[in-house]
Amino acid sequence: MTTETILWLIPLPPLLAFFLIVLLTNRSRGLSHSVAIGAAFLSWLGSMVVFVRALGVHELGRHPFAQSVPWLPTADTWLKIGVYLDPLSAAVLFFVAWTILMIFIYSVGYHNYGQSEGDHDVKGLPPHGATVTDAHGHKHKVPSVEPMYSRFFAFISLFAFGMYLLVVSDNLLTLFVGWEIMGLCSYLLIGFWYGKPSARDAAIKAFMTTRIGDVFMLLGIAFLYSATGSLSFDVIFSEKVLHTLASVPTPILGLSAAGLISLLLFIGTVGKSAQWPLHVWLPDAMEGPTPVSAMIHAATMVSAGVYAVIRMFPLLHLDAGTMSIVAFIGAFTALFAATIAVAQNDIKRVLAYSTISQLGYMIAAAGIGAYVAAAFHLITHAFFKALLFLGSGSVIHGMEHGVLHTGEHIDPQNMFNMGGLRKKMPITFWTFLIGGFALAGFPVLTAGFWSKDEILADAFAHGHLGVFVTLAVAAFLTAFYTMRQITLTFLGEPRTKAAEHAQETPWTMTLPLIVLSIFAIGYGWVGIPEHFPLLGGLLPNWFHEFVGSTLSEVPEVAPFNWTPLLTSLLVSLGGLGLGWWVYRGVRTPAEDKFQIPLLKNKWYFDEAYQFLFVRPSYWFAEKVVYLVLDKGLIDGLLHAIGHSAAVIGTTLRTYIDKAIINETIGDGTAHVIKSTGSGLRPIQSGRLQQYMVASLLVFILITGLLYYFLVLA
Amino acid sequence: MIPLSWYLFLSAALFSVGVFGVLARRNAVAILLAIELMLNAVNINLVAFWRYLTPTQMSGQVFAIIVLAVAAAEVAVGLALVISVYRRRQTAVADELDLLKW
What span, in angstroms and rounded, lies between the C-alpha atoms of A356 and B96? Predict the structure, then answer.
């Protein structure tokens, strides 16, 4: 098969799997997950084949794999649908395929496949555990299988379709379609346990918040289409079109058309990648099952936003104003989210804020022009953050086992209920440690170090000192809260009985952890800068060359400088060390000196939005829309119509229907016939002789008439 | 020779007497008798017209004989009916036999 054909086929298996599961196999759990994982595997296989072939092409950026067919006729042009594979999408496809496949496998174990059904489990709530009796007659409480097991696999299959579609599409429209499919799946999966009010609220919050960004993104797409007449990447990124867009002014903020379009598209990314000020949905999205958190809210969907920014980079970097907005929002988000993560106690929420922070890193990198570094961090982050989320899911799973075993009523996600898990769950511990160190940027060994270092080096080399300092502080905080998390969760002694009885998770969950941890270490080595002391040049800086060739001019590698490297070393090691030192003996939240209310309450953003947007909306909905518009105006109008119709109807009924039709025509006819009948009744006397007289008279009359008319006339 | 019109007058008079009898008599047997009168008036007509207009053809006489036969049959049925009604209702007065009434 040609590479283009494979590209066409890559998104399809998950879509087929979705329909298969929904329509046919949803009764059988094993069949459903086999279908889903089989589909994910096929897509993975296709992606790997395409990736390997892409590696073999010289100057793939100039000669990307591309194929398109006309799709929708629009006046005198066609909207085209097609596939496109340049170095950027090849690199993204690589990590998407791996993380999706791993998360699919992990989900089998996470949802307790093979365990018995729960005692009181209902659909829409997390499984509560089942009681089993062992060989000795002892009763144990063990985790039970998810009641809506097949449904979960259907949803994540649809999600995988959306992500693959987004990555391989050659135009903004199908990219947006994939984007929205993922938005829908995110809503469905956050609200997967819809019996919990918090999950419902979180699903709505996520959908509404990302919708704000999506509307702006759609506006941007519409503007781009009206300005250029095409949405295909190869058309809009041609030099002529870019030049035109850069020179056309717009009435808004004095931006050029290119600047305004990329700003609008960037707002879409702000929503999808949870950047400040639309970051509020992502932490709440942790209400969903953990594989969902890993897949949608760490590895793939939020990465899609960054992917879109990097994809639109040729357009973005035309306007310096937009670039600085992007850089500011990214850097601010990176620092801001990192401060919140320090004070969170829920193991998944820490990771959620760290995701926001790391996405801010990438956005900031794109904003200062270091798009290769952004792409590099995007990919390493996807690997280690998926690893961390799956690891946290494994921890929660182990803790739930302990909770069920001991019957304690504690929150299995609160890190202050954990501790000492390294002995109970060694595989999870070591992989989580690798992921955490990669996130913290532990020097040399981990992938996170190389990608973060590249961003810092770029920021320093291009003179963006504000961004450099902000990101360095954020990196320090990242290392700090990561070590806090590891210390609280795995080190020390167990704080609860449940933690003592935690258990290592099944192989379906630990295998993906191991695979992802290999990438969390190894993927960094493809992007070691050439001039790095000692290690530079041992391996070629393959990533920079490969992804850098996406644009026609390959961006220069930032010259080596000791300042960013030393900063990078200092913040990561310092943060890790400090995190361990501060939290090594902490046993209760009260002993935690960093539980600052401002940080704990996320800078009161939820409250502020509640006050600024949600409550005014409710007020507007109730007082204005409901009472004035709906009840007053529309209901009034409808009632008026109803009343006048009733009046007309009554009038017609009284004067036309009853009076004329019923009484005159209907009853009248009957009356006439009846009275005629009773009037004529006496002549039917039954007396023969009267009849005979009557017939004689009639005979005489007729004869007389005949005589008169026929003879005399 | 007696002119034809005399026969016709006789016949008309006899028929009128019959009609009056049918319409005015109360007893059913009397009504049957009156019907016989009308039939015989017709017979007189038939025979008279035959004798004066077409003496060479036998049809007038034959017709009169058929009428006599029909009259005999009719009286037989009529009297049987009257006897049957009388047995059932103890009367032969036509006005009281109003079963055909509405």
Answer: 115
Q: How far is A651 from chain B (nearest CA, A)?
A: 44
- Do the Cβ atoms of B95 and A687 come within 8 Å? yes
Nearest CA in chain A to B22: A689
Name chain B contacts of A692, Cβ cutoff 8 Å. Answer: 22-23
Query: Do the strands A77-85 and A65-74 form a parallel or antiparallel pair, or are they unpaired?
Result: antiparallel
DSSP lists the bridge partners of residue A69 as: A81
3-state helix, strand and coil shares in percent for chain B, rounded to the nearest 5? 80, 0, 20
Its pTM surpasses 0.90: no
Nearest-CA distance A705 → chain B (Å): 21
Contact A150, A437 (CB under 8 A): no
Q: List the structure tokens of A13.
A: 């298996």
Q: Which residue do the tokens 């900031």 mark? A: A364
CA A158 to CA A23: how far, in whole Å?
A: 13
Give the integer Cα–Cα distance in Å for B69 and A192.
108
Distance CA A126, CA A411 (A): 13
Nearest C-alpha neighbor of A546 from the set A692, A375, A711? A375
Record the tokens describing residue A149, joined without a space. Answer: 């097991």
CB nearest to B101's CB, from A686, A692, A696? A686
pLDDT in tens, A624-670: 888 888 888 899 999 999 999 999 999 999 998 888 888 888 888 89
Is A705 in CB contact (< 8 Å) with chain B?
no
Through-space distance between the first and last CA atoms of chain B, rounded to whole angstroms: 55
Task: Indicate yes or no: CB of B22 within 8 angstroms of CB of A692.
Answer: yes
Q: Is A696 on the interface with B (CB under 8 A)?
A: yes
Q: Show the tokens assigned to A62.
A: 């100039």
Q: Which band of pLDDT confidence, cut at 50, 70 and 90, is reported for residue A157? A: very high
Peptide bond into A127 cis (omega under 30): no
Reading phi first (left if > 0) and then psi (alpha if -120 to 50, else beta), residue A534 is in: left
**CA geometry: angle at A296 spanning A290 and A298, to 5°?**
80
Query: Which residues on neighbouring strands pair with residue A466, listed in sequence order?
Result: none
Buried b (16+ CB within 10 A) or exposed e, A571-581: bbbebbeebee
Mutate which: B25, B89, B93, B100, vs A, most A CBs within 10 A: B100
ipTM metric:
0.79
Rg of chain A in Å (alpha carbons): 36
Calculate ∠ Cα A112-A493-A405, nearest 5°: 35
Which three-class secondary structure state does DSSP give residue A85? strand
Q: Pick the residue of B26, B98, B99 with the most A CBs within 10 A to test the interface with A by mutation.
A: B98
Exposure string of A169-191, with b = 16+ CB inside 10 Å and e = fewer, is: bbbbbbbbbbbbbbbebbbbbbb
Q: Is A407 left (phi over 0), alpha (psi -120 to 50) or beta?
A: left
Which DSSP category does A65 fall into? Answer: E
Arithmetic mean of pLDDT, A502-523? 85
Instruction: With a cut of 90, say whether residue A57 has pLDDT above it.
Output: no
The span from the CA of A592 to the CA of A585, in Å, is 10
Alpha helices in A139-297 (DSSP H): 149-168, 172-190, 197-228, 233-236, 239-247, 257-272, 281-284, 290-294
Among candidates A681, A684, A689 on the partner chain, residue whose Cβ is nearest the Cβ of B94: A689
Alpha-carbon gap: A707 to the closest alpha carbon of chain B (Å): 19
> How many whole angstroms separate alpha carbon A529 and alpha carbon B72?
144
Q: How many CB pairs under 8 A join A and B?
A: 29
Q: How far is CA A502 from the centre of its chain?
A: 31
How far is it, in rounded angstroms, from Cα A423 to Cα A446? Answer: 23
The model's confidence at residue A161, banded by pLDDT at 50, 70 and 90, is very high
Residue that is written with structure tokens 């009924």 in the block: A653
CB contact (8 A) between residue B23 and residue A689: yes
